[in-house]
Amino acid sequence: MMKCLLLGAGGLMTIESDSTTETLIVRIDRSKIVPHGKPALSRMLLRLHMYRSTANVKACRSYYEEPLRVDEEHLVWRSIVLAKRQPKWVFVQANTFLEDDEVTLKE
């Protein structure tokens, strides 16, 4: 979907990367989401739906191989994102108990 928005949505999304400073900036033009982004995604999903509904594997594969192809630039983006990866959050919620009209909190 990202490649669909990058290539076929009329400048809706741009991605700027700098491997020396390891920064990745994704810019989305909000004014182009409805007029350009929605139709681009609709076209892509409709074509995939038609190919799957008609079991046209050959056409689907030829259409879908391009968006799945990983370019060298995408590998640079991936390395930047993985270098700045943060650990997963662990959310711990304490339990409350009501004992003899008194609320106690146990962690």
Automatic annotation (TrEMBL):
Q: Name the GO cellular-component terms.
A: cytoplasm
Record-given protein name: Peptidase family M49-domain-containing protein
| Keyword Transmembrane found | no
For this UniProt entry, which segments traverse the membrane? none
The signal peptide annotation in the UniProt record is none
Q: Identify the keywords attached in UniProt to this record, alphabetized.
A: Hydrolase, Metal-binding
By its UniProt entry, which InterPro entries does this protein fall under?
Peptidase_M49
- GO terms for molecular function, please? dipeptidyl-peptidase activity; metal ion binding
